[in-house]
Design a protein that fits this description.
The chain has 291 residues and is an alpha/beta fold. The chain is built from 13 helices and seven strands. α8 crosses α11 and α9 packs antiparallel against α10.
């Protein structure tokens, strides 16, 4: 199948390679990387109608700009796919806008990271059945066996991926806390070894645990070169916001997100307030701040 890939970063570049390995005809555009086209307009001319454009660019302003550009160059019957981590509400809006131009819009949640080229990508698509079914050869080439589903109408693909990433926050935080408890214990534990044996037969075995074992090998058993500063890319916040809208309690995901916030503080002002209050009511000693 022929496909126009827009964005050749860590994900888009490897997805392009995987599709080419499966015999698909890829035309590409990325202003920062060698591509088959020098513009989105030129990319359109390289594709046969009905065309399929796949956006693999960062969520937010870049996605919106790219989408609006595509609306101006695509023709009725063409399909725009957003494989980034867009907010599902934005995807629903873009579906409506595209339909006004008789253009299809499909949102696809993509999971697999830098390992997807070799292992495949888990894909969650949302949108109308006709364009989704037309893209099935692309989805099945990108995904490992059993790793693709059309999960629902417009927005559903990015909604499911949002919740997926929220769950990921909680899993990562649980591993992080457990390993810190072991590190601070009275026992001199080999955390690399423990991560290794837990990969086999343990009820907490997972791909994330395999990656942690690999991280201990690459970065040292104390992760000496890794700063404890953890970003969040938005999906955890969105998951919590939707949970609030649905009156669904998500304490684990919420705590995991707040732990990421805390990781970015050199010193917590809230902790200063608590220490000051303990001194005021109980006479507890205050540790002097480092200058």
């Amino acid at each position: 199948m022929q496909l126009g890939m827009i964005g050749l970063g860590r994900m888009g570049g490897n997805m392009t390679k995987r599709l080419e390995q499966h015999g698909h005809d890829l035309k590409t555009y990325d202003p920062g990387v060698e591509s088959t086209a020098s513009s989105i307009a030129e990319l359109r001319e390289q594709l046969d109608a009905p065309r399929a454009f796949w956006m693999m660019v960062p969520a937010g302003a870049i996605t919106e700009e790219t989408f609006q550009t595509l609306l101006g160059v695509a023709e009725p019957g063409d399909t725009i796919v957003d494989g980034g981590n867009s907010n599902f509400r934005d995807s629903q809006r873009r579906h409506v806008q595209a339909a006004e131009h008789s253009i299809h819009f499909v949102d696809v949640g993509v999971s697999g990271g830098v390992w997807g080229l070799e292992a495949g990508y888990c894909l969650m698509s949302g949108g109308d059945r006709e364009p989704v079914e037309r893209l099935l050869p692309v989805f099945t080439a990108l995904a490992p066996a059993g790793g693709y589903a059309h999960v629902g109408p417009s927005g559903a693909g990015h909604f499911v991926k949002m919740v997926h990433n929220g769950i990921e926050y909680g899993l990562m935080q649980a591993y992080a806390e457990g390993f810190e408890v072991m590190r601070e214990s009275e026992f001199e534990l080999d955390l690399h070894e423990i991560a290794g044996i837990w990969r086999y037969g343990s009820v907490v075995r997972s791909w994330l645990l395999e990656l942690l074992h690999a991280a201990f090998e690459q970065e040292g058993h104390e992760l000496e070169k890794v700063a404890g500063y953890v970003e969040d890319s938005g999906e955890g916040r969105w998951t919590i916001a939707e949970a609030i809208n649905e009156s669904v309690p998500v304490p684990v995901i919420t705590a995991a997100l707040f732990a990421r916030f805390a990781s970015r503080q050199d010193e917590s002002f809230a902790a200063k307030v608590t220490a000051a209050l303990r001194n005021q009511f109980g006479g507890h000693r205050i540790h002097e701040a480092k200058k």
